[in-house]
Design goal:
Elements lengths: L2 H16 L2 H8 L3 H15 L4 E3 L4 E3 L1 H27 L5 E7 L1 H18 L3 E7 L13 E5 L7 E8 L2 E5 L1 H4 L16 E6 L2 E3 L10 E5 L2 H9 L5 E4 H9 L4 E3 L9 E7 L6 H14 L10
Parallel strand pairs: 3-4, 3-5, 8-10
Antiparallel strand pairs: 1-2, 5-13, 6-13, 7-11, 7-12, 8-9
Helix pairs in contact: 1-3, 1-4, 2-3, 5-9
Length: 298
């Protein structure tokens, strides 16, 4: 298999995954006709039509589906081997695909990745932000950040720290309220509740009975509701730190330390890690660890 063949297969895999010739052309920094020629070369080599292309979408033929399913694993091994060898003799280069929860990705990860791309100019970052749990192997993802311990044994996991939670409310909401000096005082307040999988996430701190005025399954929405004075919320310290420093939120019962879930960096296990992935993973671990507590509770 020559370099043109490997490149054509690489392009085919990315077109299938992105469902777009133009998106892959932008990603690889080449022209769209160049992508089309590579697909045509692969189809000529195989003697079969692999893709059906309209003005709106790209779909697989039956032959294309079979080839994609059989070729994706060994092709990626070859690509990663070539990138690993190239990385050993020079600066790491290539695309690193990262998945992270939305709020953590926007508030913590994005500024760090901006610095990583400056320090590693040969590397491009493909960032996917979603609160769902990404399957690294099935979705061709190199690194995932997760809040909470992952269950899969197929992952290599590195704990970066713990995400301490704080009880906060806006000065607007607290203006006419009596000072809260103990946990008993929390019962008189309106709560903004976080939900996870349809259930209230109280982290052991909600009073009983608890009156909530607003609930959402997105932590940034709960944060925004707290800023608008809808009530009291339990939120990650890393998300609220700036608002607390600016006086937009006030911390209640600051002496109470609420155990936080672990924040972990996940990598696929059982395969050689490419130099580009190793470089980015180490940079992320180094810069993210100071953002979290070294233990779950004090």
């Amino acid at each position: 298999m020559g370099p043109d063949s490997l490149r054509a297969i690489t392009i085919f895999l990315r077109v299938v995954e992105r469902e777009s010739f133009s998106a892959v052309a932008r990603e690889m920094r080449v022209t769209q006709p160049s992508i089309s020629r590579s697909i045509a070369l692969l189809e000529t080599m195989l003697g079969a039509k692999l893709l059906l292309r309209t003005t709106r979408k790209v779909t697989l033929t039956e032959a294309g589906r079979v080839f994609y399913e059989r070729a994706k694993a060994p092709a990626r091994e070859l690509i990663e081997l070539a990138q690993e060898i190239a990385g050993e003799v020079g600066m790491p280069k290539g695309i690193v695909r990262i998945a992270a929860p939305g709020a953590l990705g926007r508030h913590l990860l994005l500024p760090i990745l901006a610095e990583v791309t400056k320090a590693l100019p040969g590397i491009s970052i493909d960032l996917s932000l979603s609160d769902r749990r990404v399957d690294l192997l099935e979705e061709n993802t190199d690194i995932a950040l997760r809040v909470g311990q992952p269950e899969l044994a197929s992952l290599t996991v590195r704990t970066l720290g713990y995400s301490p939670q704080v009880i906060v409310a806006s000065p607007i909401y607290l203006k006419d309220k009596a000072p809260v000096e103990s946990r008993d005082g929390l019962a008189a307040l309106d709560w903004i509740a976080r939900k996870e999988a349809g259930r209230l996430l109280d982290l052991g701190m909600f009073p009983s009975p608890m009156t909530w005025r607003f609930a959402a399954d997105d932590v940034e929405t709960v944060f925004a509701a707290a800023l608008r004075g809808l009530g009291v919320a339990i939120l990650p310290l890393w998300l609220t730190r700036d608002a607390l420093e600016q006086g937009l939120l006030q911390r209640l019962l600051s002496e109470v330390h609420i155990p936080g879930p672990p924040v972990v960096l996940c990598l696929p296990s059982g395969r050689q890690m490419p130099a580009r992935v190793r470089a980015v993973a180490e940079a992320l671990a180094t810069q993210l660890q100071p953002c979290f507590s070294s233990r779950s509770a004090r």
